[in-house]
Amino acid sequence: MDAVDRRAVTPNKSILARTFAKVLNVRAATGVAPDDGAQKTKTQETVKQDSMSNRRQSFGNDEKLRHKSSERRQSFGFGNDEKLRHKSSERRGNDEKLRHKSSERRGNDEKIRHKSSERRQSFVFGNDEKLKHKSSNMHQSFGDNNEKLRHKSSNMHQSFGDNDEKLQHKIGNGRQSSGDVDEKLRHKLATEAFLAKLFASVSTLKAAYAQMQFAESPYDGEAIQAADQIVVSELKNLSGFKQSYVKKQFYEESSPEKVQVLAELQEQKSLLKTYEIMGKKLDSQLRLKNSEIIFLKEKLEETKKENRLIERRLNASGLLSNPDNLQFSGLNPNHFISAVRQTVKSVRQFARLMINEMELTGWDLDSAARAIEPDVDYWNESHKCFTIEAFVCREMFDGFNFPHFVPPNKWEQPKKQHRLFFDRFTQLKSLKTREYLVKNPKSKFATFCSAKFFRVVHPKMESSLFGNTNHTNVLRTGEFPDTSFFYAFSDMAKRVWLLHCLAFSFEPEASIFEVKKRCRFSEVYMESVCEEAFLSSDGKTKTKTETETEPVVAFTVVPGFRIGKTVIQCQVYLS
């Protein structure tokens, strides 16, 4: 819609108001009115009514304008009337233009209403056709779904019927299988009850037989008779069990659970009785062994007494250790054997003293034993003391086969000095070791004693045992320590020195020997320091077949000696 040209309107308040009214009438005639910034389309009747009211209002406004114009001509005079008539004619021209525009707009409104009616008609009729088509399709789909539902319903009814048949069939089979399971369970319980009664009867029979054996020693007639009756009764029960098993009569038990519990209780009672009888039998054997031990101890004491009597007789005859009237011409191997025993005893005492000192200072005896003799399997942990004893013997008897404990020169001819060695033996045997060393610090024995102490007790060992090296320092000055440890060592050294002198007093001289590791044990040349090597796992002496795989030599503890045809066995440790 074209807006009114403001330049064609005079600046008069009534004319401006009339112009606004015409503009509003034009908008009302087109049916478009502002409503909060949105346009609303009016119906055809409303548009006609608005158009008629606008026309009446327009005519009323014209009458008012003519009336005001006549008044103004009268008030302003003829000149003004002419001006007013001219303006009025201009306004009428404008009104004609406005009416022309209004008629054009009404034509446009008619076109708009026609198009609106066509659209409503096309929209309504088109939607009706679509709705009818959709409705027909929906009716057709509903019919198809109903057919499918009826088909599914019939299938479900048929499947439910089949399932009912299957369920009834399964229920029938379940009842039948339940009956079979109950029958199997009853059969199993009856079998277990029968076996429980069978084992209970066997246990009772064993207990009665054990009672019968126990009553035989010492003999108990009443106990034997009672046990015999029980044995006969249980044998009859076992025979009855056999018959009932063959005839399948043991299935007829009314309460197999109760029978099984009672049978197990009877079996436990019979086992308890058997263990009681075995305990009594072991107590009897223990008493017998104790009596044997007492008897053997008494026999050992008697044997020791006999040995002491024999030693006294030998001493009286001058054949044993160091008699004062021993002559060079009367030497025999028995004198040497006695000297060997005393020497070994002295060496063992000193080895025990060294072990005690090691234990007091916290030495690891296992490590010390492995350092001396590696890769040895000991029968007992306490046997590691034999390793320390073997070390002392090895150092003390080193060079024993040489006259002065050292190899002679190649150009030095061996001399027959049997008498000289016998004189040394006679001179030293009756003297105290401490007094002899003090009086003869430059003697052969004093030199031997100092040299062997350095071999047996190394300065590092001395420092570890005593916290100092006083023994070594004093010996290097040519003097001798005044300690109990050195006195024990000097006594042992004296025994070795005397044995060496006595060995070279014989013609031919006595010789020393050792056996190598892993050698086969021989009773002719060897003596074992541990009896465990000849005992079986049950503590008994091995039989001939068991000794075929006897242990081998691990190391030599005390060397052996030969004097002519006489052999003094060496002491070895077997592994």
TrEMBL record:
Residues 286-313 form a coiled coil. The keyword Coiled coil applies. Keywords: Coiled coil. Residues 512-573 form the GIL1/IRKI C-terminal domain. Pfam families: DUF641 (PF04859), GIL1_IRKI_C (PF24994). Residues 49-60 have a biased composition (Polar residues). Residues 37-48 have a biased composition (Basic and acidic residues). InterPro entries: DUF641_pln, GIL1-like, GIL1_IRKI_C. Residues 33-126 are annotated as: Disordered. Residues 190-313 form the DUF641 domain. GO terms for biological process: negative gravitropism; response to red or far red light. This is DUF641 domain-containing protein.
